[in-house]
Amino acid sequence: MATPPSATTPPGTVPVAAQAACVTDPATPKRQFRGMWIASVANIDWPSRTGLTAAAQQAEYRGWLDLAKQRRMNAVVVQVRPAADAFWPSTYEPWSQWLTGTQGGNPGYDPMAFMVAEAHARNLEFHAWFNPYRVATHTDLTKLAASHPARKNPGWAVAYNGQLYYNPGIPAVRAFVQTAMMDAVSRYDIDAVHWDDYFYPYPGSGGGFPDQATYAQYGAGFSTIADWRRNNVNLLVQEMSAKIRAAKPWVKLGVSPFGIWRNAGTDPLGSRTTGLQSYDAIYADTRRWVKQGWIDYIAPQIYWQIGHPAADYAELVRWWSETVNGTTVQLLVGQATYRAGASGQDAAWQDPAELTDHLTLNRAYPRILGDIHFSAKDVRADRIGAVSRVTTDHYRRPALAPAGVGGAAPAAPNLTSAVRGTGGVTLNWQRGAAGSTASYAVYRLPGDGSVDPCDLADARNLLGTVRASGSTGTFTDATAAAGSTYRYLVTALDRLHHESPASNARVVTGTGGTFSVIVDNTTTGGFTAAATWGTSSYLTARYGTNYRFAEPQAVSDPAWFSATLPAAGSYRVEVWYPADPGYNSATPHLVATANGTVTASVDQRSGGGQWRVLGTYDFAAGTRQVVGVSRWTSTQGYVVADAVRLTRL
């Protein structure tokens, strides 16, 4: 039942229902953080090598953002200060060597300004990733640029385990690194400051970190050097948090620490694990940062498989969920996408289901609000189809980022027009009169009836998002079927993703004739299949550029075709496939009708290269999975999923 507008809801707008009050598909959440790390140190991801021209660097970066959008992500975490250097014209530290090959070398443009602008043009959040204390991946101060602060203040630097670090125990160092990072916060329109797991360095083979003299100078009041070191890091976090919130309250502070705080065998508050303890090894008291609310989100690097004997993924997501409970800190999970299908990894990571199973397990813990994948090159590599499987199983539709603390939803926009043209349906709207609008969400509902607020809590009706610019906005729905009638609505969001009531609805009617829609296996948003389904273009009788195939097996692993049906009624269902004598003689087709799922078998050994009628079935209006091709058959030969056509009768 639709919820009546409240007294404060502007006339003609539709409130957006709380998702908890609506029945939605847990596999397609409307709110979910989806990000990937783009690492610059050692040219891991970007730039791919030093010395590229500015144009080449920019083209590569745009490619990473396009990949993020293709995988339906909504954020990138980009390393902009990998080693006491800068990817912007800093007045405190030199240009990063990973840009030009020479520390201090000007790349000829402002990478930070470019990166933020390009991310926001795609409405991707830009999380600026800083390393607070690493100075160099070597120990020779003379190799640093002449202007480098560590050369001007050699007492700040410590050589340890083959690298140079700023000494976290020196108050002047702590103040300086905060100032260097705040320079970027104040000058650029970033969405978050992000730190990974490097605070004090991980223990090396050459003994402990050599800061005993610093402890003697500054450690009064601490009974152990370990407690003093932890306090140094605590002060960094606490002070940086206060500075960010004072300067730009909408900029989040997020940390992605090592996945284990402490083991229960050491501390009853710890997790049931037996691995390295970040509290003791690198002096990162991450649990305290959460409980004190010094950070806005935490994304522990839970880089182990489900069932790992020392650090079970399932145990760690349970522990971190309990840790953030009762706080305002958002919990994300750092995913070891780099392990999936990689040579030398444990057998579990050779299973395409391992990574997707992590996200399925996350659903049991409502405090987990999303994931960050390490790193971009591994998302692109998609070894053993693990990333494709995650996209299919968990990122089927666009998603809004989780709403943060503070801020307020802006006023609803006014949808001024929705016009069907040759390129689709183009929407135009005006910004609402009140509040601070940072972006918009665009919704499409089938048919021309009234709007239930629960429709706007369903991610299957979310078409996409647009960054706000000026007093107007526009969006073109290129996926609108010519014969379909739709209702369109738009909402506005502030910088922390609080969503306004929906705009007025605009109805676009179908362009004459009987409604009919074709969904190919390459139709964006219209087809899902696990990595167990192969892709082929071998047979010319296919529909479109290729088709999908799989071995029969007694498993529930269907490939699904989804469609938006404008109205309830009877529809003729047809399938297209390329026939081959070696294909399956009884391929099960699952038809998800309004009255339940019906199975129809098709002999795919013959009769291909044309539309074959499965039958006439009743369907409800809306966007949903309509026809599936199942592998569950005792007959031999590949089962094939190519295209379906639904025609309203």
The parts where pLDDT drops under 50 for at least 5 residues are 1-11
Strand content: 25-35%
Kindly provide the name of the CATH class of the largest domain. Answer: Alpha Beta
Q: Distance between termini? A: 29 Å
Residue-averaged pLDDT, rounded? 93
CATH superfamily of the largest domain: Glycosidases
Sheet of most strands:
8 strands, parallel, barrel
Examine the secondary-structure arrangement and name the CATH architecture of the largest domain.
Alpha-Beta Barrel
As laid out across the biggest beta sheet, the strand order is 1-2-3-7-8-9-10-11
DSSP strand count: 30
Residues in helix, % = 10-25%
When the domains are counted, the total is 3
Summed up, the helix count is: 13
| SS content category | alpha/beta
What name does CATH use for the topology of the largest domain?
A: TIM Barrel
**Which of globular, elongated, flat, extended, rod-shaped describes the shape?**
globular
> What Rg is obtained from the alpha carbons, in whole angstroms?
27 Å
Keywords: Signal
Domain Glycosyl hydrolase-like: 33-351
Pfam families: GHL10, Golvesin_C
InterPro entries: CBD-like_Golvesin-Xly (IPR033803), Divisome_Glycosyl_Hydrolase (IPR052177), GH (IPR017853), GHL10 (IPR003790), Ig-like_fold (IPR013783)
